[in-house]
Design a protein that fits this description.
The chain is of the alpha/beta class. It folds into 2 domains: 5-223, P-loop containing nucleotide triphosphate hydrolases (Rossmann fold, 3-Layer(aba) Sandwich), CATH 3.40.50.300; 231-298, Alpha-Beta Plaits. 36% of the residues lie in helices and 27% in strands. It contains 11 helices and 14 strands. It has helices at residues 45-52, 74-78, 96-106, 111-125, 140-151, 170-185, 197-201, 220-224, 244-252, 277-285, 301-321, and strands at residues 5-16, 19-30, 34-38, 60-65, 68-69, 81-84, 158-162, 189-193, 205-210, 213-218, 234-240, 257-263, 266-272, 293-296. A 6-stranded mixed beta sheet has the order 6-7-8-3-9-10, with helices on both faces. The protein is globular and about 75 Å long. The chain starts with a strand and ends with a helix. The protein binds adenosine-5'-triphosphate.
């Protein structure tokens, strides 16, 4: 049975003057999902979140949380959602404990109820050892945990996190994600923006927005099997070699090479099925690159986003020409 829909957008649009920051975006997120929302800088992610949280009025379309219209039933959704923005306002001069108590009171908690909720969140986020530390002195990862705890004080069932792992180290990132999985296992619905593809791969559902428009939305594994991502008569290789950028420049215009994308020390090539590894090796050898490792791969989510964005742009170009 499909999960109950917790977040829904229908033709959600935001214009700032003549500029359209979010253009007819529609998607649904089920209860307990971890929905990863990706897109380049300025593509409209935060604007979507701010509309979903009732902080910004849509110009057109609508957004619903648990069936309530966020623009018209703001009071109903307030208690249901938590929002951790990119710059969540922790009070640097206050300790972890004082920040929790401050936010708890702000949400109307008092006495026993406040103490109980604080203890639950301390246990959930494992922040106990830092309770008396001033927020200013916390590392990035612990700061984000405190911000998460503060945004959960009123027991929301939907949590919006705008780049919660930006600027924190890989270990802290992984630990924060473990925490998000714990939240989701308790039935919480999470809506997370990120620029990290490895984080996207861990989400139950992902959406990709490019230039204000939603390019694709779905379950990562299903998206990787889309025919438009795996055109008939093609295969995908991971090619690892030295001077990968120069190598890519040399390969991208070779007949049979349809697409090239650099991934750190390697590149992903989408090539014609009949292309041989030897042709690639010969091309690279001509550049003096002889240590080359080639192996077949399936598409990553980044490949999916690259392919679908390119298809959309091609479509627009063709439409423009017609
Ligand atoms: N209040 C505003 N007034 C005018 N333009 C705005 C406003 N808020 C956002 N924008 C513009 O809308 C576009 C989308 O911004 P948004 O912050 O939603 O992008 P984003 O995808 O979250 O980017 P990032 O990944 O950098 O956080 C940007 O071009 C931004 O400059």
């Amino acid at each position: 049975m499909a999960a109950e829909t917790m977040i829904e957008c229908e033709g959600l649009t935001k214009k700032f003057g003549s500029f359209t920051a979010v253009d007819h975006v529609s998607f649904k997120v089920g209860k307990g999902s971890i929905f990863g929302f990706l897109g380049p800088n300025g593509s409209g992610k935060s604007t979507v979140i701010r509309m979903l949280c009732g902080l910004l009025e849509p110009t057109e379309g609508r957004a619903l949380i648990a069936g309530f219209d966020v623009a018209r039933e703001t009071d109903k959704i307030k208690s249901m959602i938590g929002y951790m923005s990119q710059k969540f306002s922790l009070y640097d001069e206050l300790t972890v404990h004082e920040n929790l108590m401050f936010y708890g009171r702000l949400y109307g908690l008092r006495g026993e109820a406040l103490a109980r909720r604080r203890d639950e969140l301390v246990a959930l986020t494992h922040i106990e050892p830092y309770m008396n530390r001033r927020a200013a002195l916390l590392s990035g990862g612990w700061r984000q945990r405190l911000a998460m705890a503060c945004s959960l004080l009123h027991q929301p069932t939907v949590l919006f996190l705008d780049e919660p792992t930006a600027g924190i180290d890989p270990v802290a990132r992984r630990e924060l994600w473990d925490l998000l999985f714990e939240f989701s296992s308790r039935g919480m619905t999470l809506f997370v923006t990120t620029h990290y593809m490895d984080e996207a791969e861990r989400c139950t559902h992902v959406g990709y927005i490019h230039m204000s428009k939603l390019v694709v939305c779905g379950v990562p594994d299903e998206l990787k099997h889309l025919p438009s991502v795996n055109p008939p008569g093609t295969k995908r290789w991971d090619v690892t070699c030295e001077h990968v950028t120069a190598a890519m420049q040399a390969l991208r215009h070779m007949p049979g090479v349809r697409n090239t994308t650099v991934f750190g020390q390697s590149m992903h090539l989408l090539v014609d099925e009949q292309m041989s590894e030897e042709t690639v090796r010969a091309q690279l050898a001509a550049l003096g690159i002889t240590k080359v490792d080639i192996h077949p791969i399936g598409p990553s989510l980044e490949d999916v986003f690259v392919a679908l964005t390119a298809n959309r742009n091609d479509g627009q170009t063709k439409e423009g020409k017609a």
